[in-house]
Write a structure and sequence with these properties.
This protein is mainly α and about 110 residues long. The protein contains four helices and no strands. It has a domain of about 70 residues. The radius of gyration is 17 Å and the shape is flat.
């Protein structure tokens, strides 16, 4: 019998979190349940991304990274409006600061 290593654990958690737990919650009518579902899908995508990079499947890992981004957007969209505004404001501040630094370094 074969030993279970970390890659096997990552693959199993990816399937469990992303498909079996996250997908039914995404179909819920309640925004809070949908946000939880997207969190699980994000966790599954992150596990798949790590496992694929470790094995050397770099192109395939890009798709897991894209699904991670989609799931983060899904979490943000299903949060209450005040929380969305707070996180979007934090993102704007971060990107504008980094963008200004980047422009200063390039010029």
């Amino acid at each position: 019998m074969r030993e279970v290593n970390i890659i096997d654990v990552l693959q199993i958690s990816s399937v469990l979190a992303g498909s079996l737990v996250g997908s039914p919650k995404i179909a819920s009518r309640l925004p809070k349940q949908r946000a939880i579902g997207f969190m699980f899908v994000g966790l599954g995508s992150l596990c798949a991304f790590i496992a694929q990079v470790y094995v050397g499947l770099y192109i395939l890992s890009l798709s897991s990274f894209i699904w991670l981004g989609f799931s983060l957007k899904g979490v943000l969209v299903n949060l209450p409006r005040e929380t969305q505004d707070k996180y979007l404001d934090l993102l704007r501040r971060f990107y504008f600061r980094k963008g200004k630094r980047l422009v200063r370094t390039l010029t």
